[in-house]
Every structure is written in structure tokens, then in C-alpha cells.
Amino acid sequence: MNATKIARAIGAAASMAAGSAAAQTPLTYSVNGANLTLYGNVDYYLNYQKSSSGSHIVSLQDGAYLRTRIGVRGDKSVAEGYTIKFQAEQGLNDTSGAQADATRLFDRQLWAGLATPIGEFRLGRQNTAVFYQGSYIDNTTRTLGSVINAFGVPSRYDSDLAYISPRLAGFQFEAHYSIAGSAVNDTSNQAVYQLAAEWAGGPFRIGYAGVYGEPPDNAVVRQKVKYDNVYANWDYGKGKVYLAFVRSNNNGPTAGAPGILNNGASPLGNTGSLVTGTDTGALTFYKIYQLSADYQITPKLRIGGLYGRIVAESGDQKDADGWSVAGYYDIWKDTIVYAIVDAIKNEANAGFRPSGSAGLTKTFTAANDVNGRSISGVHVGFVYRF
Question: Which of helix, strand or coil describes residue 147?
């Protein structure tokens, strides 16, 4: 039923646009002075993974590089220097046809905003600054093959009020405040805050993005959940070198089948759920150090390598390190084929698993296959964008 609603909503928008005016660019239309764009992508890949326990997985997966999605975005100038904007985006699992989140019509984004001479103001369900800066973090655009991505990334929150400044002298600032946790006579104070700042000039880019989630006032675990990410990259002409550092307590144990996996849960949900105040994982802070680089062999072929290390500040064998080698080839316009080889090695009390832009629907879930294990993989796929 939800899938039918999505198809009707997007189909109606596209039909209205097509009936009102001729297309200006592929899938972009002018409707009563507004620009309306229907967009999306499909990402399939063949996945092979092996655990040092001896178990292995062979599967067809969605979203190594880009979660499969479909969306509509639009803008309309309403006055000199003022533009109304909106975006509605739904994630899909292209191996089954299911919605990425069956409880939502537009799970990835649904927001409206106003761009002004002093910056842009938005409200609704939005991506975090940490999430959409992935292409500045590492050569994988912080997807499959990224150690930071395997740890988990706060991606989007409901009822989010945001301000994004213009870029001045290379600097840009961003602030978010999500009031998703408020209710009638609410005293839980479960807001989610975000702050980001970046400078870009010439071949260099340096930035910071942070997300902070408050536990309920009556929480058993009173620790605020934090995710602080500092990044820098240098464009040396034929590619980029990337440095990234994360400090976060947004990871903890999760139930497996059978047993408990030492990592995988997020005390502050990565896609909208708030801090419950019951997850003891919030008591352990991790530091992640990551170095990567890529090289443009030809105008169409890019290769890269990455190494990262996760270090638990508790010092009780919860560390892990990982690496990846990847190649991306623009085989046709709007179509990329890719191949990735990666590995994560967990210490005795760590249990991190590789993940892409979309989480794996078939992955290791038994504690014996994850905790203290090395997990390696080979992944080959393609992305078509429209």
C-alpha cells in the first residue's frame, strides 16, 4: 500500500510537470515558474564476505555506493534573492522492491526551506551535515570499504530546524535543532543538536561536523551521545588525499542470532530514533583514525585505498582496524561500475562489520562469526543515476 502511494505521488508530480511545460533538462520541468526535478538511482552489487570463523555469505545486495532511491525536488523564486525549496526522497531496496523503511512514505528526506541572501532555512526530516559531507571524508565517499562507515554515521532526524550560511571567504557554517522528542507537557528534553563548520580554498578543504543527542531526564544511562567528525582533504591534481578523525560513543552491543554482537547498536539512532537512555554502549567512547587517497588513472577510471583504526578509550580489547582497495569506472554517462576489496579485523571484544550506503540485508548475525573475528569481502556492482 505504501509503495502504491509512492508511485502515485511521484507519478502525479511528473505528469503534472510534463503536462505543464516541456522538459528543460532530463527529468527537470518548469511548472508555474517553479523548477521540478524527478531523480533517483539504482545500485546493485554482488557481495562475497568471509569470516575467520569459516562462515561466508554470497548475495545480491542494494546500495554499496548509493542507497537506491527515488525523489522529487523543486525550487521557485518568490522575490529578489529569495527562493522556496523542497525535497522529498524515498529509499528502496532494489533486490526485493521493498521500501527502505516501511513505516514512512519518504524515509530519507522530506523538508521545505527558504534560501535568502543571509543563508538557507529548512524544516522537516533532513540529512545531517555529517552524512552529506561523505565525499569529503574518504575515497569511498564514506560508503562500503570505509572504516568510519562500518562504525555507523548519524544520517537524518525528524522535525529538524536548520540554518546553512552562505560561503564567505571560504567559510560556511551550519546548525540544526531537532525537536522530535517533544510532546505535550514534555520534560524529557530529547533534542538532537548539530553544528558544522568548513573552510574550502584552492586544493584544500578542512571541516568539522558534530551531532549530539540528549537522553531522557529520567534515563538509567545519563550519558549524552556524541559524534564529532573532523576531516581534511587535498586535491593534488590527479586525485585527493583524505584525513578523517571521529570521536563518538554512538555504538554498542546488539542482539545477534544466536548471542550478542559486541557492536552494531546505536544509542542515538542513525536514521531518526532518539536516545533511549538504556543502552550501556553510550558509556564507551571510541576514536577512529582514517587515511585514504585516490588517483584518477584516466578521465573515467579512479582507484583508491584506505586504512582506518577504531580505538576504544576503555582499553579493553574493543579495538578494530580495517582497509580497502576500490576502483570506480564511469562506463557510460550516469553509470558507474565498481569493485571493492575490504577487510575488518576485530580484537577479542570488538564486533564491527562492513556496511555500505545501505545496510546489508544478508550479513553475519551470529556472535561467533563477528565478535573477535576478521571479516573480509569482495564486492562488484554498478550505479545508474537519473
Answer: helix
Cα separation, 227 vs 216, in Å, equals: 18
Q: What is the mean pLDDT of each run of 10 residues along the chain (386 residues)?
A: 48 42 60 91 98 98 96 96 97 93 94 98 97 96 97 96 97 94 65 96 98 91 96 98 98 91 95 91 97 98 98 95 98 96 98 95 95 98 96
Q: Residue 58 CB: number of other CB atoms within 10 A?
A: 10
122: nearest Cα among 194, 197, 180, 176: 176
Where do the domains of the chain lie?
2-385
Asked if 229 and 210 touch (Cβ cutoff 8 Å), the reply is yes
Grid cell for residue 54 = 569459516
CA distance 279 to 178: 21
Fold of 2-385: Porin (2.40.160)
By three-state DSSP, how is residue 6 classified? helix
Q: How many CB atoms lie within 10 A of CB 104?
A: 17
Cα-Cα-Cα-Cα dihedral sign, residues 231, 112, 152, 195: positive
